[in-house]
Amino acid sequence: MSSVSNACEELTLTADGATAIVDLTHGGRLASLTVAGHELLVTKAVEHRADDPFGWGAYPMVPWAGRVADGRFSFHGQEHQLPLNMGDHSLHGTGFTQPWRQVGSDAAIFDLAAPWPFSGTVSQTFELTANFFRCYMTVAAEQAMPAMIGWHPWFVRELEGHSADLQFGEAKMFERDGRGIPTGQLIDVPPGPWDDCFTELTSHPQIAWGDLLSIELRSSCQHWVIYTEPEHALCVEPQTGPPNQFNLAPATVAPKSTMEAWYSVSWRH
């Protein structure tokens, strides 16, 4: 079931032993995911991150994911400049900083608008059971435009003294240039820590906190940015393409058409 509070608009879903809270005010993000009493995400309250949208919860990255180099891209012969919010680059889209509107008991929507130069809407639908949380996202375009879909979860490093152990089998990694931008070439995976995009994974990413709790991440997305540099958290980010895809091989959504993707977190304890 779900509810919306008045002070900060939140959509709350509950199932046997699990609670998911979606913060509609702060970017339509999953702000909390508790399983058997354990908070799996870095929360706004813990990190005091209310004024920093980058580092907490699990937020949607749309209409692009990761970096757009120099914030510039060309589409159908026209040049576009996005605002720079991470050094020389434009990071993670516009959806994670915008308020979303609740639609029914388990969904939210926001309108694409400036600084994104194309019109359309983005919607998310949320599902929670005793065994998994799942989110579906849809980009609906009013005009032809490039688009990406992704999510950026911040999982805690420790649960009751148990350190997180990430496994994802064999994979290929996108080579990055000196500015941290993928070149489009795939290479073998070097030792971590990473802030890199992976593809061709041979197994679904899994995180285990000792024998206390383990989760498995699945997605329709074929690319995963894995960020293991922070000491307090790790990020396993499904997305429909690599960072800077708009300048590598952009995916286009036709007028009056949609792009769709989903991801899920399932658990055992």
Characterize the structure shown.
Helix content is 3%, strand content 50%. The model is unreliable at 1-7 (pLDDT under 50). The longest helix has 4 residues, at 44-47. Strands 10-11-12-13-26-22-21-17-16 form a nine-stranded antiparallel β-sheet, with no helix packed on it. Strands 5-15-24-23-20-18-19 form a seven-stranded antiparallel β-sheet, with no helix packed on it. Strand 21 and strand 22 form a beta hairpin. The chain is mostly beta strands. The radius of gyration is 18 Å and the shape is globular.
* Number of separate domains: 1
End-to-end Cα distance, whole Å, is 23 Å
Number of E strands: 26
- Approximate helicity band: under 10%
The major pleated sheet works out as: 9 strands, antiparallel
CATH C-level category: Mainly Beta
Q: Output the CATH topology.
A: Beta-galactosidase, Chain A, domain 5
Low-confidence stretches: 1-7
Sum this structure up briefly.
The chain is mainly beta. The chain has helices at 44-47, 245-248; strands at 10-15, 18-23, 29-35, 38-39, 58-61, 67-68, 72-75, 78-81, 90-91, 101-103, 107-112, 120-128, 132-141, 145-146, 150-156, 158-159, 162-167, 172-176, 182-187, 195-199, 206-209, 213-219, 223-227, 233-239, 252-253, 258-268.
